[in-house]
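Here is an idea for our session: we take a single protein and study its fold together. To get us started, please write out a protein record for me. Once you have written the record down, we can walk along the chain together.
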Amino acid sequence: MSFAELFTALEQHVVDGQENPWITIKSSKFNEVQQYATETNHVYTPFITLVSERFWNRLPADYQQLLRDAAKQMGDYERHVSRSMNDQIKQELKDEGMQITELTPAQVKVFQDKLEPVYANWRDKIGGDLIDSIRQAAASAQ
């Protein structure tokens, strides 16, 4: 379904729900046609800095290092702002009447256990060290 049609589809009960970050739910006013939501924390969408290889290769080494350093600082700042905004917007949605269910640790564990075979399946394809570092970073962020 086209995202542009989602509000009307929710309003007319063509679909029962949607999955988006709190900021998208708020800015799209889905809370006007969707009374309930569940916070699953199943995905994190970072904002990343990209440059073309052609552009990068034309930069002197010291400029490349400046961009690396700036990108690291921007990433840290983005995560801080993103988490703050996420919490603020979720509270605004609650204040406006959306009933948000937050999963208990036991409920989250059920999801994690069900997904364990996915990690095992991809371990050799993308690297166990990468998977382990991502899982460790996710655990420490909670």
